[in-house]
């Protein structure tokens, strides 16, 4: 069983209400010919700093932090999100930064270069998606799952390690080499 943190689902509705709690979805997917059970946690940003959310950071293999490319404040908060994830996770993880709503180019507040610069500075992959029209959503999930299940050497080097030596000692299930 692989546990990841993803945004919700693969459908879009104009009536979607913002997530105010932690929602868990279970999904069976095929990756590289293997059937894999995945837990998908939708953590809304309002609860990202609560104790309830911190406990959800443990024992996860990957995190997708998504921001709205039409909302500068959502981008301004991503460093704090990544800092908390890294602080509270207890194993090697694969973080991914996602800029969503690329279908609304006329309202764009965050340029692709700014987001890519942030991602490169923190050695995090960056992908742009549109939940509304489905652009790159499937590819995002496939890439994250493939990188976790069958990581290349480059992906292994990109994995974030836990902060403390106690956490490093408990990281025996990681696919990464602990240095």
Automatic annotation (TrEMBL):
One of its GO terms (molecular function) is GTPase activity. It comes from the Eukaryota. This is Uncharacterized protein. The keyword Repressor does not apply. Keywords: GTP-binding, Nucleotide-binding. The keyword GTP-binding applies. Coiled coil: none annotated. Pfam families: Ras.
């Amino acid at each position: 069983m692989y546990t990841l943190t993803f945004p919700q689902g693969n459908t879009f509705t104009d009536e979607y209400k913002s997530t105010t709690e932690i929602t868990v979805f279970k999904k069976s997917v095929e990756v590289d010919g293997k059937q894999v059970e995945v837990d998908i946690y939708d953590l809304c940003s309002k609860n990202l700093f609560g104790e309830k959310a911190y406990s959800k950071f443990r024992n996860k293999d990957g995190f997708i932090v998504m921001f709205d490319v039409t909302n500068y404040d959502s981008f301004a908060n991503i460093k704090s999100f990544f800092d908390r994830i890294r602080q509270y996770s207890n194993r090697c993880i694969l973080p991914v930064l996602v800029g969503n709503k690329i279908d609304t180019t006329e309202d764009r507040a965050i340029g692709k270069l700014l987001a890519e610069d942030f991602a490169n500075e923190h050695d995090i992959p960056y992908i742009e998606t549109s939940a509304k029209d489905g652009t790159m959503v499937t590819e995002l999930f496939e890439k994250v799952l493939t990188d976790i299940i069958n990581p290349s050497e480059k992906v292994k080097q990109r994995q974030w390690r836990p902060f403390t030596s106690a956490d490093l000692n408990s990281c025996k299930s990681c696919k990464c080499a602990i240095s």
